[in-house]
């Protein structure tokens, strides 16, 4: 309670005033030096300043003594009854000498000086009850404050600011620079060691957090890695010395390219990499037995890539530190020894040096010399190897020929650098092998996850760099080799297959007589089975009558709706493998095990019986290796269904427009696809029973079989024509913008040259890996056709090529020739374009090619674009599909 005599004189201790300009008796808050200033200021008991009372005024002086006694006793009671404060706001800045403590008394935020400096002051976070001040985070690590004038504030916008020298105007030395708006921000130190800024009353949403800006320490719950949504990258940077927290020369960060892994660099030089995560650990790190302390996590998703760890027992105190020498250490506090115990240290040996043995070299720390070439390889520069310089690596003794290659298995190795790799987490090892074998520039494959027998697929598409042998860890990798080298290596995978092949031959000779008799019996059985199946798959005659008299011209089996329903698991959503203007496409399996693709007309589709009959009629009469095969149809119970052979590799656009999938299409595969499409169109235009104009040729309508052979599909818009018809008119223009020829899109005139134009667009898309529709370039506003034309006129057509396939497998002359032919196909005038017989000839021979003229639709006509219901763009007044 305030003394009454003081109240009468207006001397309330919470409302200090100056009474005279005579001699002053100064009261400073230093009366309370036995208590910390943080306790006083946290509860806002007094303002900054002094109590000035004239010495001559004894009554006032006595009153001030009363105030002092009252004030000190009040503060003492407040301090003894309160707990540590972990939060501050804009009215409660933190000065040098003040601290705040996390709620669980685990961490402290305040100012400190390293052991080697008495003047340099840093704002940091350290452990509360551990001697030695183990600092885990520093705000101004590269900009120390000279002297004790620092002040940490949080402003009304939610930004933390570290300022100093307020008596001389003040200067800012560090700020959180948060861009998120705030209404009532507060700063809080959490028990995790995370300093956060949040809205008052909202404990879950952080406007800013120190965990996003690590220094040399990774605490439990912190994320090391990249946020793909914001582009924000979290990584460790070493300190210069144990007693100097400023940034040192080493960094420890995730490289997100290919399949992510952690790279340690000294400056810009790569020193060490962990190898990719294999489900248990990074493949290049030592094997650790299961422990009761740590739970590790490595996440790769569309949103973020990060490594993190948690503690099973929250009472355990542990941290991961990148020390000043570039060594990663996992430290745990021991209460018994009152010191930090090194639980794990990544002490790097000679073989951990990045790319020590060069490409296709392997390092073994127990061999001499430590570097040797993989089997089937030899030193690229033998003289340098003799001088113990292995950096140029090794080269193959026998070149790969793609079709006859195989794989050699290596066990217990640190997987090579994954910067130029591709991965799929759901693929089996056998599927992974098949994908690598089909892509000529795939150099190796392995499982991503080694748990439970292995899963996932990791493919390499470049030289294999930084391989080392590990004694107690590592994993398996399968490296591509020429067939002759596989036999020479004595690889178990290959030799076992060779032995098995010999055994099969011997066994076949012994059993041939018996099998001949069995085959005769099977002939009769299969004939009976086929007749039975035909009876089951025939539809109801009354339903079939809906198809009209043309039913007899189909030459096509009619399936029963019940059989199709069983094959597709009752048209389950899990069986859907695609969708187009016609409707959904389901994967199915018939009773005899044959896989099928079921194309079902949806009720929302703009197509109807006419397009359905048109596709069935045309494709039923067409048979070619580059056309999709129609097995039958169903017109039962209001359903209209087409049954095709299943294409396991989906459509062409799934590969060429996807950055990861496009790596599976090397140049030989792309060249094979281009030629296959050309032969298929030539068959439609010239060699089929009906001369067909497809009218909707695009990458999405080119399906790929198991060996990446192209199959033209979707004949719903196809039209047949006689030899006397050079061109045809239509009032209803349908198709896909970006692939339609100018005369068809604008005037409704279509001919075989319309398909030629579409083919030219597809060739440029296959070569470049870019869509014509929506193509953009920083240097101009041209579409893909205009871009290719411009580079061709500048004498640089090879720059159109997709960067992902510019490797040893591509042939410059083939690439340039394909671009040249494509530009001939997309010329403005249909009469200038070659027919498909000439296109096939130009692609398959070295005949001299004419110079192309300016292409049609040279630039984007954005004023005429509109969105259609199937996410494709067409010209205004045209029917979208």
UniProtKB/TrEMBL annotation:
Residues in Protein kinase domain copies: 571-849
InterPro entries listed in its UniProt record: Bulb-type_lectin_dom, Bulb-type_lectin_dom_sf, Kinase-like_dom_sf, Pan_app, Prot_kinase_dom, S_locus_glycoprot_dom, Ser-Thr/Tyr_kinase_cat_dom, Ser/Thr_kinase_AS
Keyword match Kinase: yes
EC class: transferase
Keywords tagged on the record: ATP-binding, Disulfide bond, Glycoprotein, Kinase, Membrane, Nucleotide-binding, Phosphoprotein, Receptor, Serine/threonine-protein kinase, Signal, Transferase, Transmembrane, Transmembrane helix
UniProt entry tagged with the keyword Nucleotide-binding: yes
Domain Apple stretches: 402-482
Biological processes, Gene Ontology terms: recognition of pollen
Gene3D superfamilies: Bulb-type lectin domain (2.90.10.10), Hepatocyte Growth Factor (3.50.4.10), Phosphorylase Kinase, domain 1 (3.30.200.20), Transferase(Phosphotransferase) domain 1 (1.10.510.10)
Signal sequence extent: none
Assigned protein family: Belongs to the protein kinase superfamily. Ser/Thr protein kinase family.
Protein name: Receptor-like serine/threonine-protein kinase
